Amino acid sequence: MFTFYPTFKSIYLSFFNSTFGSQTFVGFDQYSRVLQDEVFHKVIKNNLILVIGTVPISIFLAIYLAIWVNNKMKGNGILRAAFFYPTIIPMIAIANIWLFIYTPDYGLLDKFLSFFGIDGVNWLGEPAWVMYAMIGMIIWKEAGFFMLFYLAGLQNLPSEVYEAAKLEGARPFQVFRKITFPLIMPTTLFCLVIATTNSFKLVDHLYIMTKGGPDNASNLLLFYIYETAFSFWDMGAASVLTVILLVILLSISIFNYAYLDKRIHY
Q1: Distance CA 210, CA 207 (A)
Q2: Alpha helix locations (H) across 14-158?
Q3: DSSP-assigned letters across all residues of 210-229
């Protein structure tokens, strides 16, 4: 009811030029109109930039944090809680926090840069900078979440392998490259799928911080769907965009589990 019906309903509506008042069958003309839209091209480009900017950094940072807090040292529990804490904060609250951080002149980021004699910019108001600002916030939000999965994975690795590597005189980086990283590849695949799909499902922070601006420089696919459906009341175009989003997410999952999964050593 809550998965398949909305999916098939969106596919059905995508062939109609529909509002809440009327429906007119237009077939694939609706798809042609959406695919030729310049805003759609910009939104897809923004989403790809977000994926490239957030997914690799979030995953590698999560691995680093997990290895760090997996060591036995004082304050381990506090560190783990501090790194995981951004995950439990609602996205709306995070957007408000970072809205204050990015405030020109008075924000924490500009105040920090002023100590080094660097002039800040309008992080959310300039098209050239707004996506970098979004990427920084998303990495801060998601790295701790993925750290938890890597921490669980590291604690289940066989200790005998590490003892043998220590006896052989392997250096830390060699141990990571030859032992740790290959053994946590199943966790990496899982995190890769979640991080990539999450990048296409972000909408809350845009509503608070930028509304997709300036000039659609921070607009993402899910927010564009929301805007098309509930600001422009173009349900047909919104349904086409929803179908495109479903195809993208399904393609990502199939690629990861059907192709990458077979190349991972368990």
Answers
A1: 6
A2: 29-35, 38-70, 76-88, 91-101, 108-114, 127-155
A3: TTT-STTTT--HHHHHHHHH
Tell me what the mean pLDDT of segment 102-120 comes to.
90
Give burial (CB, 10 Å; 0-12/13-18/19+) of 100: exposed
Lowest mean pLDDT among 121-125, 176-180, 257-261: 257-261
Can you tell me the distance from the alpha carbon of 211 to that of 214, in angstroms, rounded to the nearest whole number?
8
pLDDT of residue 209: 92
**C-alpha to C-alpha distance for 204 and 95, rounded to whole angstroms:** 8
Q: What whole-number distance in Å separates Cα of residue 84 and Cα of residue 229?
A: 35
For the stretch 130-161, what's the b/e string if a residue is b when 16 or more beta carbons lie within 10 angstroms of its beta carbon? bbebbbbbbbbbbbbbbbbbbbebbeeeeeee
